[in-house]
From TrEMBL:
Catalytic activity: a 2'-deoxyadenosine in DNA + S-adenosyl-L-methionine = an N(6)-methyl-2'-deoxyadenosine in DNA + S-adenosyl-L-homocysteine + H(+)
Organism: Oceanisphaera psychrotolerans
GO biological process: methylation
Pfam families hit by this protein: N6_N4_Mtase (PF01555)
Protein's name in the database: site-specific DNA-methyltransferase (adenine-specific)
Annotated stretches, region: Disordered: 205-227
Domain DNA methylase N-4/N-6: 82-377
Superkingdom as given in the UniProt entry: Bacteria
Acetylation recorded as keyword: no
UniProt GO MF annotations: DNA binding; N-methyltransferase activity; site-specific DNA-methyltransferase (adenine-specific) activity
Family: Belongs to the N(4)/N(6)-methyltransferase family.
EC number: 2.1.1.72
């Protein structure tokens, strides 16, 4: 009898509906971009590439705009390059969906999360990981959703973070923790690259050197006797004092005779100051692996709390700006980034909030990308990062990582939609787009890398070493096409996107001609700027009935 494996999955209203996202381009706001003064470039060396040129200023991105559109916009350039994703998404406590009942609210939240998680997975490197903070409102549903998106085998752990060490007496049960779900892109690869935590003071205190051993501090390894064992673990040992000892009846040595003799030969056995105590086999601190394996319990005493982040850091750093109600402490992000990355790696946070992820990643010598839709992107995160870059932020983890300042970032806005409807309801090229914007946007839509040539007017980008693209809002006549074809030559091909063209019945073997906007009209949803919480997950009435009928039939067949 064979048992058919069934895939368990989470079902909710509108699960099968996915938005057809427009891959927007970015526009830099140079008035908000920021770079350290020349005399304060301490961090630049951390980001030096093969050409030894500073990379920090250009690689760090603060993006203002809808985070789903931003993730889509990042996909072409950053797919497979993000080493660590940290997100602190809305916890769906009810405040985000005040106009919907609980069932629809829950469905909207799951749809909102699912499509973002799928894009985040695409951006993650093969040895990358994602860390998601959440509370009890959606934690268990999110776990099942993450199993679907990342694969259950790639689940690493659920970490319990003590966000509040205090006790609230005005509630039934005082909530003191959040969850952090940890998934890897590929668990087998991630386990090889994850970093250990440094030894803390408590761990180091266990190592002493009472006999001035030149090999340094040590602690008890195998020592004394135990109640369980076998006859092979009962043998005589002669102490340096001359006394001969054996375990009492019913007891056994904790180490084999061969292990003891090997340790004795290596002068690794301690018999007490007078040489008359039961033997202890030494374990030197130098032999311990380079740190501690992380545990799933992260107390606020080690990783900070919401309250400490507000009171001890953000209020002091930006006293004139009201801090967030529940900011994540820098110590929490420092631990995550330390475990998941190394200097120079890329960290991404698409729910930037108060900007803690970027601030900590910056101080730790990592490259970073943050996305934030709200006004705090300009009015809170930018001032905070400027203080980090100028070395004025000495709170949080600054002293622990010896942060002195340096680096920079670019402030990017999502460009408006490439297509807009005119007064008659026809899709036309958005008048806000100039020629350069148009060329970059079309490269993205057609799968080309935007890299305009300084010498060839027809070369705006490439898809391979011999395949190029040319974008123009003008119409091309036969003579123009003939000239371009001759310049391209027989060893290369060129995709031309233009308003109109006239070939006079002649085919050019090295040219492919496409009219805009017709070439991209059906590629995505146009002129949709906000996917934050407005995702329409409810299907039309007939479609919903048909879906139910199909599901019922499928269940009966199984």
């Amino acid at each position: 009898m064979s048992i058919k494996k069934q895939k368990l999955e989470l079902i909710w209203i509108g699960k099968d509906k996915r938005p057809r996202l427009e891959p927007r381009i970015f526009l830099e706001d140079k008035s908000l971009s920021y770079q350290a003064a020349p005399e304060n470039q301490a961090a630049e060396a951390l980001f030096a590439g093969d050409d030894q040129q500073p990379k920090a200023f250009h690689d760090n991105l603060l993006i203002h705009g809808d985070n789903l559109l931003a993730l889509k916009a990042l996909e072409q350039q950053y797919a497979g390059k993000v080493k660590c994703v940290f997100i602190d998404p809305p916890y769906n406590t009810g405040s985000a969906f005040t106009h919907y009942d609980d069932g629809l609210e829950h469905s909207m939240w799951l749809s909102m999360m699912r499509v973002r998680l799928e894009l985040l997975r695409t951006l993650m490197s093969d040895d990358g990981s994602i860390w998601i903070t959440i509370d009890d409102n959606e934690a268990h549903y999110l776990k099942v959703l993450c199993d679907e998106v990342f694969g259950r085998s790639n689940f690493i752990s659920t970490i319990i973070w003590e966000k509040d060490a205090g006790r609230k007496n005005d509630t039934t049960i005082s909530t003191s923790h959040d969850y952090i779900f940890l998934y890897a892109k590929a668990s087998s690869g991630w386990k090889k690259v994850r970093n250990l935590l440094p030894h803390g003071e408590e761990q180091l205190k266990r190592y002493k050197n009472p006999d001035n051993d030149p090999r340094g501090p040590w602690r008890q390894g195998a020592d004394g006797t135990a109640k369980s064992g076998n006859d092979a673990l009962r043998y005589e040992i002669t102490l340096p004092s001359g006394r001969v000892v054996t375990p009492p009846s019913g007891n056994f040595w904790r180490f084999s005779k061969s292990t003891f003799e090997q340790a004795l030969q290596e002068d690794r056995v301690y018999f007490g100051k007078k040489g008359d105590s039961l033997p202890v086999i030494k374990k030197y601190i130098s032999e311990v692996q380079g740190g501690m394996v992380p545990k799933t319990w992260w107390p606020s005493s080690e990783t900070g709390s919401n309250q400490s982040a507000r009171r001890d850091h953000l209020r002091k750093l930006l006293p004139d700006i009201e801090p967030f109600s529940t900011p994540k402490p820098e110590q929490l992000l420092e631990r995550i980034i330390h475990i998941a990355t190394n200097p120079g790696d890329l960290v991404l946070d698409s729910f930037a909030g108060s900007g803690t992820t970027g601030a900590v990643a910056h101080k730790m010598g990592r490259r970073w990308i943050m996305v934030e839709l709200g006004e705090q992107s300009e009015h809170y995160i930018v001032p905070r990062l400027k203080k980090v870059i100028d070395g004025e932020d000495q709170g949080g983890v600054s002293k622990a990582v010896n942060w002195q300042g340096g680096g920079g970032f670019r402030y990017l806005n999502l460009a408006p939609s490439l297509l807009k409807k005119d007064a008659w309801g026809n899709w036309i090229i958005n008048k806000e787009y100039n020629g350069e914007m148009m060329a970059e946007a079309m490269c993205k839509h057609m799968g080309f890398t935007y890299a305009p040539s300084q010498t060839q007017f027809w070369n705006h980008g490439y898809s391979t070493e011999t395949d190029y693209i040319y974008v123009t809002t003008g119409s091309l006549a036969y003579d123009q096409l003939k000239r371009i074809s001759e310049e391209v030559g027989s060893e290369r091909t060129l995709l031309i996107c233009c308003k109109a063209f006239m070939t006079d019945g002649v085919e050019f073997a090295n040219l492919t001609l496409q009219k805009i906007p017709r070439a991209i009209l059906n590629k995505c949803e146009w002129d949709h700027d906000d996917y934050s919480f407005t995702l329409n997950v409810l299907p039309e009435e007939p479609a919903e009935q048909e879906t139910v009928e199909q599901a019922t039939t499928s269940a009966e067949e199984e």
